[in-house]
Amino acid sequence: MKLKDRYLLQQTLLTPDIGHGKAPIVLRIIAIALLVLFSVNAFADECEVWFLKSKVRPGTKNCEIECSIIRVDMGTFTCHDECEKLCSSYFDPDRYDSQVLTPSEVALSAKYPSAASKVWIAQKKALSATEKYFTERAWNNEADAFRHFVWAGEMTRLIGAEKAQAFLDAHENRKNQDPLEKEMDDHNNLRGIRATQRLTSKKSFSSSNLEKEALKELAKGRLKVNAPTGEIPKWKN
Fold it and tell me: Is residue 148 in a domain?
């Protein structure tokens, strides 16, 4: 979250109620939730944007050296300490493509702020699961297919299939999106949604079981992979 956005949220909290309606109270609750959610990760997010703008490529041999000499300012002065993490093969530039969110995601997040915060939580779970299983950077390969499957599944669990599909479609609605990449992501997103629906109907949903389903579908060739590396990990309980 940018500093000006955090400022606006803080102003929302400090503004006196207008009249005696419930709307100002609701707005304050939303503001508190968003402020807490994003403030925890404010510095990390600033550093990821700083790193992405530098054009240094994560996962390369000289990444950490190049990262350590990127110019910093008052908002990014601690970012050199994050270079090891940012250069990890699990850094996801897709998250900050097109200035963080697509216009469709921005509009949807404004309409459903509570759901938007849960979308972010689901994304964190998907990235963590991908890091647990894969050594390759997630980009059009098996790791990428797995990540989208789990993200869609976790999102479905948190906000329901209809809203999950809407947020996923909004995420893919970006300028200059490669049609083959979009086709791959759309396919794997849908498989993740359906997996959560199956697991939920059987009363057996858990993040671990969702990951198991993702790896099973990957092994059986049911997930779409545009640039296969052959890496298909075994499930870890």
Answer: yes
